[in-house]
Amino acid sequence: xxxxxxxxxxxxxxxxxxxxxxxxxxxxxxxxxxxxxxxxxxxxxxxxxxxxxxxxxxxxxxxxxxxxxxxxxxxxxxxxxxxxxxxxxxxxxxxxxxxxxxxxxxxxxxxxxxxxxxxxxxxxxxxxxxxxxxxxxxxxxxxxxxxxxxxxxxxxxxxxxxxxxxxxxxxxxxxxxxxxxxxxxxxxxxxxxxxxxxxxxxxxxxxxxxxxxxxxxxxxxxxxxxxxxxxxxxxxxxxxxxxxxxxxxxxxxxxxxxxxxxxxxxxxxxxxxxxxxxxxxxxxxxxxxxxxxxxxxxxxxxxx
Length: 304
Ligand code: PBG
Description:
Elements: E1 12-19, E2 26-27, E3 35-37, H1 39-51, E4 56-62, H2 74-87, E5 92-97, H3 119-135, E6 140-143, H4 150-160, E7 173-174, H5 181-187, H6 206-218, E8 224-227, H7 233-243, E9 247-250, H8 253-264, H9 270-283, E10 289-290
Parallel strand pairs: 1-3, 1-4, 1-10, 4-5, 5-6, 7-8, 8-9, 9-10
Antiparallel strand pairs: 2-3
Helix pairs in contact: 1-2, 3-4, 6-7
Ligand PBG binds near residues 96, 100, 189, 252 and 253.
């Protein structure tokens, strides 16, 4: 996935949304071709994606019940086992590891009784989720929460449990961005009060954005990422040069939907614009790209 030469479908990661307790697949209007899935529809989609050449997946679990402390992710374990049965070792399955779909507050962290971010409880909850995922067969975890120190904590927890080869793909330079709108509908994760600016990065601060990725590298992340992708393209190469690690780009929901809407108004040709957007990120130095269109790549003529 992180080969530095060539560019093909192997460098693309397909997100998949699994919603616990859903009775029927719900297509996402902002992300055509993507849905909130039941377990059954997820597995069908997964098989289709494998047949379409997708080899990297990022699973987003959306639990039926929100809580402020007790996060149950058994439903993800069941899905991972069945995905593994279908894919064998042909595909890599990453799981987005965050709390915003799990918490009543819609925040990526746990709050204490006084309403302040509780870092210890947040780490502990992320650790339990990460272990559940890896034990059930995830190839790696992808923490997207942006809480301080979470990569070091997860690395330690995974190592301690004997999962020292499970890689961490960290959302390492993630901005508090306006471009995540369509995603929040999919993951049912909009913050119920305030915003994410106390843990996500300020778009005006370049040095902070670089330092955030450097910290993740020091804490043991294996792969780094900028998010949103195109708006952060200027940071990809500097992060790679400062850390030596592969740096990917998340072409986020708002970026993808903007192409969809432009095409709907006939201002662009969707396929050509999508490929261009991937090439732009690749030129900027992205080792891999998370994109809602990964499953379209072969049809668009991209090599493996
Ligand atoms: C959860 C998470 C978000 C995205 C990926 N993981 C939303 C957020 O941080 O608010 C955004 C993905 C997208 O917009 O496509 N922390």
